[in-house]
Amino acid sequence: MPQPNDCHVLAMETKNLDILPVKRHKASKKSGGAVDRISNLPDAILHLILSFLQTIDAVKTSVLSKRWRYLWTSLGYLEFDHCYFWSRHIKFWYQREFSEKFTNFVTCVLSFRDGSDIKRFRLSSFNFCNKWVDKWIDVVISHNVRELDLSLCPEGAFLLPHSIGSSKYLTALKLNLFNHVLEIPKTMVFNKLTSLHLVSLRFSNDGLARLLFLGCPVLEILVLQRCVYDNIKVLDIYATKLKTLTIENLELDDAGDDGLRQTVLKVFAPNLLSFRYMGPVARDYILQDPLCIINVYIHLVNGFEKGSLKGLGYLMCKFIGGFYNAEVMKLSMIFLEVCNFLFIVSILH
C-alpha cells in the first residue's frame, strides 16, 4: 500500500511511462527571471484550474515545483476515464497490462488523498474487477462525495455497493451499465439523493424499479435513458418530490424492442414540473394528478403498426389528457402525423 508522503513518486512514474511529459521552462535572462504568477494564486483557484484536467494530468503537475507537489491530493473533482488513459497517454500491447496499470493508478490516487471532501467522482471503465470498484466507491463515500458518475461494464449483474446507500452527502448519482442488470440491496435508502440518471441498464423485474424509486424519498430529477425493461409489467415511478422526469428510449436493441411497449407506465409525482417522453408507445399510461406540471414534450416512435391501431387513438388521447394542467406542451411531427392518420382511419371506418 503506497504511503501519503510518497505521492511525488506517482507523478514521476507517470512521467516515466511517457504520459504527457511535462516541459520545464527556464526563466529568461533578459527579463531578469520570470515571475510565476500562477503558482502564487490561492489554493482554491489552483484547484479550479486543475478541475478542468483529467486526474492523470492533474497528478503530473506535482513535478512542476514544491508549490504544486501536493495540490492534486485535495482536488474536489476526480475523473478516471480508461479511454483517455489508453488512447492519449499509454500504449500497451496487452489488455491485462493496461487493466493493471489503470487499477493501480486509481488506487494510488485515492490512497494519497488527504482528508478533504470530494465534490464529484467520475469513473469510466470497461474492464474492471468488482472488488476494486467497491473499494474505490467506499473511499470516495468516506470523503463525503456529492456527485457520483459511474460507467461500468460488469461481468453479469452489478450489485450497488452498500456504502452508496449509507452516504449522508451523496446528492447526484449517474449510472451507465451498458445493458447489464442492476441489483439493489432491499434495505438500501438514498435519503439525500435529489438527482438520479440511469443509462443503458436492465430492469429485470417490477420489484427492482419499485424498490429503487421508493428508496429515493427526496428525488427531484429522474432520467431513464436507453434502459431495457425485461419482464416488467408495470414501471411504477412513485416520487412525491419529483420535479423533472425524462424517459428517453429512441435507440432500441437489435430486435427493435426495449420492453417498454409491453409495460404499463405508472407515474405518481404530484409536484412534477417537467415531463419528457421520447420512445415507443407503452402498453398503457397511468398518470396520477401531476397538478404542478408546466412543460410537457412527447415524441413517440414505433408501436404504430396496423395490428396495433385498434385502441391506439384512445391510448394516445389518454396519455396527453393526463397533462391537462400543462402550460406548454410540445408534440413531435411524427406524433401529429400518426394522430392525423388515426383520425382518417376512424372516418373511413
Describe this structure in words.
There is one protein chain. The protein is built from 10 helices and 15 strands. The chain is elongated, with a radius of gyration of 25 Å. The protein is α/β, with parallel strands linked by helices and 349 residues long. The chain has helices spanning 7-16, 43-50, 55-60, 82-89, 95-111, 130-142, 162-166, 206-214, 312-321, 333-348, and strands spanning 77-81, 120-125, 147-152, 158-159, 172-183, 195-203, 221-225, 228-229, 234-238, 244-248, 264-268, 274-279, 284-288, 295-300, 328-331.
Structural class: alpha/beta
Instruction: Quote the beta fraction.
Output: 15-25%
Rounded average pLDDT:
81
Beta strand count: 15
Helical amount: 25-40%
Question: How many angstroms separate the termini?
Answer: 76 Å
Name the helix and strand elements from N-terminus to C-terminus, one letter apiece: HHHEHHEHEEHEEHEEEEEEEEHEH
Largest sheet: 12 strands, parallel
Gross morphology:
elongated
Global Rg? 25 Å
Tally the helices: what do you get?
10
Low-confidence segments, ≥5 residues, pLDDT <50? 1-9, 15-31
Short structural summary:
The chain is of the alpha/beta class. The chain is built from 10 helices and 15 strands. α5 packs parallel to α6 (130-142).
Secondary structure layout:
Blueprint lengths: L6 H10 L26 H8 L4 H6 L16 E5 H8 L5 H17 L8 E6 L4 H13 L4 E6 L5 E2 L2 H5 L5 E12 L11 E9 L2 H9 L6 E5 L2 E2 L4 E5 L5 E5 L15 E5 L5 E6 L4 E5 L6 E6 L11 H10 L6 E4 L1 H16 L1
Parallel strand pairs: 1-2, 2-3, 3-5, 4-5, 5-6, 6-7, 6-8, 7-10, 9-11, 10-12, 11-13, 12-14, 14-15
Descriptors for this entry?
12-stranded parallel sheet; 349 residues; alpha/beta; 3-stranded parallel sheet
